[in-house]
Amino acid sequence: MNRKPCILVVFSVLLMAMTAAVAQELPAAKPESVGLSSERLERIGAAVQRSIDDQRIAGAVTLVSRRGRVAWFKAQGMADREAGKPMRPDTMFRICSMTKPITTVAAMILYEEGRFLLDDPVSKYLPEFKNPKVLVKPASGEPYSIPATREITIRDLMRHTSGITYSWNPDLGPIYRANNVGDGILQYDGTIADSVKRLAGLPLLFNPGDRWEYGLGIDVLGRLVEVVSGKPLDEVFRVRIFEPLGMKDTYFYPPDDKLARLAAAYTYYPEKGLNRFPETPITEGSFVYSADYPYRGPKKLFSGGAGLVSTAADYARFCQMILDGGKAGNTRLLSRKSVELMTNDQLGKIGPDQGFGLGFAIDGVKAPLPELGSVGELGWGGFFYTKFSIDTKEQMIVIFMGQLHPAGDLSLDQQVHELAYQAIID
């Protein structure tokens, strides 16, 4: 008797049982009961499987929720291809910049307690940011800095108009690296207080409020949360957000008994194909990043802009809170009015065609929708190929979790979003 088919059947049954168990922790529904087509949702699974078969990605977890109920939740491929470990619904992922909305919510909780106003200067709480300067690069000669026209406000941090950038920026990146500024995706022997203090002494890319530039401003916001609350950022997250929402698998540094659930990270280069992320960090100019920072190194940096590890189900709980106007069941984290402020464009004529609120990008408010979706839809992604969207009009959440960087020209994360929307049938 061939035992292999029997083992595969047993494994498949166990995997389906695990999927059902995890899904039961979130309210679930048949797709048709929430206005989605079961048949059309299967196109998500087919697209993910094609990318797995083509060896563009090792595996992924996808989730679609509508009207407060999960209609699609599927783990596909491998969490660790080399170890033969399959992707599971409770697999944990490095969510990187999907940390930013969580940090912004933590700050808004304190804002609602009257701890600060959004247009307060950051230096009122972090004095090291007093009297900021702006980098000037003349056509010839050495760069120099001049006083900024105004100070950075808390609103600037939340909407990325502070003049702070990331270490991949060609002008300021080398200066960040030379001054040991952390960015959350590399081991760092220091705290967020250490990193932010170093950052405060460096010039800005432009005058605060002049334009939009994605950067470390949310890490500064995370440090501000620590100072205002008097508690470490991980504790603020746990007590004020994770425990009330039931986010039991979201951490800066997962405990040892959960590390086995962390998906392996991969790289994709056209000339090399899909490969496990190397043991040593990858260097791209002044930007250096690793994949083992959640479990190796000092584990002291609570990066508000990039540091968290989470699951699709946990992040869906966070998204549902935003979709429900700041509450989860009978627990309210934020006022409906605060969520309205956060989810309306804060840039106006500043910056890119895409709108940006406080912690979220906003589609369709400054330029036509690029793909299927709704005007006002919220979202963002993470460095290691994760993405989410929140649509208050359609009452829909779409989450994609992979672990890949660089991703080449792969657009699977966006495709999953479009396939979720084409499944709407009501």
Characterise the protein shown here:
- With 426 residues, the chain is of the alpha+beta class.
- The protein has 11 helices and 18 strands.
- It has an 8-stranded antiparallel β-sheet with strand order 3-2-1-18-17-16-15-14, with helices on both faces. A two-stranded antiparallel sheet has the order 4-11.
- It starts with a helix and ends in a 5-residue tail after the last helix.
- The model is unreliable at 1-24 (pLDDT under 50).
Number of strands: 18
Q: How would a crystallographer describe the biggest sheet?
A: 8 strands, antiparallel
Q: What overall geometry do the principal axes of the alpha carbons give?
A: globular
Task: Count helical runs.
Answer: 11
Give the strand order of the largest sheet, numbering strands 1, 2, ... along the chain. Answer: 3-2-1-18-17-16-15-14
Mean pLDDT across residues:
93
Return Rg in Å.
Answer: 22 Å
Low-confidence stretches: 1-24
Query: First CA to last CA: what distance?
Result: 50 Å
- Write the element-wise H/E pattern from the N-terminal end onward: HHEEEEHEEHHHHHEEEEEHEEHEEEEEH
Q: What fraction of the residues are assigned to beta strands by DSSP?
A: 15-25%
Structural class by secondary-structure content: alpha+beta
Helix fraction?
25-40%
SSE layout and pairings?
Layout: H1 3-24, H2 38-53, E1 59-66, E2 69-80, E3 85-86, E4 93-94, H3 100-112, E5 133-136, E6 144-147, H4 154-159, H5 173-178, H6 192-200, H7 217-229, H8 233-245, E7 266-269, E8 273-276, E9 282-284, E10 287-289, E11 309-310, H9 312-323, E12 327-328, E13 331-332, H10 336-342, E14 355-356, E15 361-362, E16 378-382, E17 386-391, E18 396-401, H11 412-421
Antiparallel strand pairs: 1-2, 1-18, 2-3, 4-11, 5-6, 7-8, 9-10, 12-13, 14-15, 15-16, 16-17, 17-18
